[in-house]
């Protein structure tokens, strides 16, 4: 297949490639018909430069070769092919085109590496933080994760669900810090929750287990001098929602309280006793973790969220008014649908923060189905 035909049938850019090709043709026509003192040949260097903006190295090299051929054609048509000036122009065009192709090769390699990194990050997210199941007993679940950093897919916010014989247990947590240390501690909490949520008979014992795992991991290699400055901790909500009772039981470890949307209204479920964040408690007595019980009836929806939702700011520096927005969502006809609730939360949150969050944000919506 001829080079031009391959160029035309290749991947995206078939329309854009007409721009450098048209420029080459226009320069040839104008330069040949122009007066002897007018020389537009040096403009041909713009053709491979434009092609590099949307093409790979092969297509850019082909455009560069066409530009060189056009320069030779102009020299032959005007009878100056053997002059030093034209030879210098052709040599400069070949050199610049070659450099542009080299830059295209470097850019293509970096894009390939970035694509591989994104693939690895996506795989890590699917392993560490997979989407919650849509159904768990009488519950419908939905989750959303919004990263503050561009191209990031995972941070210190986390959520998980576990199915016991007669209930569904959930964890929503926010690990202190950012970057790899936060992801490491998030992975630790997720593993500890998934391993113990089936074996611990009560939420307080599960909280003790998670607190101990967090403290052990963050302190096992630290010196006494570093303990006060490098402590790792996580605020968390632990929930147990039985199948046969219209209630939700929760333990709050320094985390923003959940919001209950019921009967067209939204209210915050504030526990009377709030335990220290996981990793700071050092509590071996399960009675220190008080369990709060709230009604959770069919047709109602629970919204769990991290502080990244509350701390999102608008152009004037105002925080995201979750309580007011949730009241508006509660009046919607499909307010009981967890996925629709999170769609509204995501859209309103990003609109409020102009598309850029100051901190990672995660949310989980739980709806109890009608019997």
UniProtKB/TrEMBL annotation:
UniProt KW Chloroplast keyword: no
TM region(s), chain numbering: 12-32, 38-54, 61-80, 86-106
Annotated organism of origin: Streptomyces similanensis
InterPro entries documented for this protein: Bact_Sigma-Reg (IPR052016), PPM-type-like_dom_sf (IPR036457), PPM-type_phosphatase-like_dom (IPR001932)
SMART domains for this protein: PP2C_SIG
Keywords, alphabetical: Hydrolase, Membrane, Transmembrane, Transmembrane helix
Top-level taxon in the UniProt lineage: Bacteria
Ranges where the PPM-type phosphatase domain occurs: 139-368
Name of this chain's protein: PP2C family protein-serine/threonine phosphatase
